[in-house]
UniProtKB/TrEMBL annotation:
CDD domains: PBP2_PEB3_AcfC
Record keyword Signal present: yes
Organism: Campylobacter insulaenigrae
Keywords: Signal
Name used for this protein in its record: Extracellular solute-binding protein
Length: 247
């Protein structure tokens, strides 16, 4: 009996030995940096598993402590996929990011503003999936001008299913002049070879990352500590360095 109790205790300790965090690729770089800081400060290991939902959702159903998203609609989808594991009332809003346009360093079409994407002959790529469904439409219609969307629609040549697919396409397809995406993706495509043009107030859209503990995670006090650490004042420098807006 004593041996069984010891084994059970060891299993319980092992279960909480690592905080398992799942979500999309967008917020992953900043969360990985923060996770490293958390481990240095507390000794508690945090593992960030990121990428397209299909690659991690089945595993997350079994062992996730935290789920994060790139925006609210994405989190709503995770709640539907994990109804027993996460609840709306437990969601924490993190930092926001701004939309804009990535262009190549030589910028052959001389794109300087989002409005330049409406010009004839500009080849545009958009992300029409994951956390960016309808982003290009929201930007084009922010002032209520249907004509803006009509012009942009004619120039969209590639509809990427997610940001990672868009980055891969951007690197291999030199015919694309501009990519509508979030600020921080400039790091993924390369800041030397490309530049990011943030949309001005007439077109910019903001969306925030979110994080929620699972029912399993709520049993581990270190999970709550990590979420608070992610939101803390001390971590805002990392968020800003990775292209997100400081809280």
């Amino acid at each position: 009996m004593k041996k069984i109790l010891c084994l059970s205790l060891f299993a319980a300790i092992a279960l909480n030995a690592e905080i398992l965090v799942y979500g999309p690729g967008g917020p992953a770089p900043v969360l990985k940096k923060i996770a490293t800081k958390f481990e240095e400060k507390t000794g508690e290991k945090v593992t960030i598993v990121a990428g397209p939902t299909s690659k991690w959702i089945d595993k997350a159903k079994k062992d996730a402590d935290i789920i994060f998203s790139g925006n609210t609609s994405m989190m709503d989808g995770f709640i539907k996929a994990l109804p027993e594991q996460i609840k709306v009332d437990d969601i924490e809003v993190l930092n926001a990011r701004a939309s804009g346009v990535i262009v190549r360093s030589d910028n052959p079409k001389n794109i300087k503003t989002f409005k330049d994407l409406f010009k004839e002959g500009v080849n545009v790529m958009v992300v029409d999936g994951a956390g960016q469904v309808g982003l290009y439409e929201d930007m084009a219609l922010k002032t209520g001008s249907v004509e803006n969307l009509e012009k942009l629609r004619k120039n969209i040549k590639v509809y990427a299913k997610n940001s990672k697919a868009a980055v891969d396409e951007w690197k291999t397809n030199q015919n694309i002049d501009a990519l509508i995406i979030w600020t921080h993706w400039i790091k993924a495509v390369g800041e030397k070879e490309n530049k990011f043009i943030q949309a001005d107030k007439n077109f910019v859209i903001y969306r925030a990352a979110e994080m929620v503990p699972t029912t399993k995670g709520l049993k581990n006090s270190n999970v709550t500590k990590f979420i608070e650490f992610v939101k803390s004042k001390d971590m805002q420098k990392i968020w800003r360095e990775e292209g997100w807006i400081k809280r």
